[in-house]
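[job 4417] fold queue: 2 targets
>>> target A
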Amino acid sequence: MWRDFGSSRRFHISKFSRFFVLTVLTDGGFCALILGGIAGLWIDNMGLGIILTVSLMCNMLWASFAGTLFPIIISRFGLDPAISAGPILTTTTDVLGYALFLGLATLFLI
């Protein structure tokens, strides 16, 4: 149970973090490569496809870390993680996604 961490809290956090990172690198990497390739071929600009792939991978990696750690951190403050983590996770993932995509596009395409 998540609310009863006990003495092996660090083991569980590292175990679940590794699991989500590996899941993101396999599933997210596959989806990011396909979407980046489609965008690059469709617009005929492979630089844009690479930027989309990198920003999508970084955004998915952040979402997996934050989705794992935000509920744990919020429960330490005594709040309900099921209610509190959702809006925080959505906001940070959206802001990071826009910032990564637009920042990388500005750096490499302009």
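>>> target B
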Amino acid sequence: MENAEIAKIFRDIADILETKHDNIFKIRAYQKVASSIEAISNPLEQLIHENRLGEVPGVGEAIAKKISELVSTGKLEYYRKLKAEVAGATSDSRKPDTADNSHGKEKGAR
């Protein structure tokens, strides 16, 4: 997986966390690491093999594990779960019960 693809995933994670009103420091951590990944010239795969991933600004233990997962599998379970949560929240907000209440009437009132 290319650095640009990994950076995009981390930007997407930051955006999702922002939508969920998550911890601002967590959001900024993902934004920072995305920018750092875009700025480096070495492929992350090479840095992992050389045990130098920690040299990338913003990469701590948790993010290093996520980068390693992305590089080795091409997928990130944490990202998949976040996207599923947002998709679930979006579909919940479109259910008829919530739409019925948009007119200021209680459910079942006529």
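[job 4417] complete. Note on B: Residues 33 and 58 are 5 Å apart (CA to CA).
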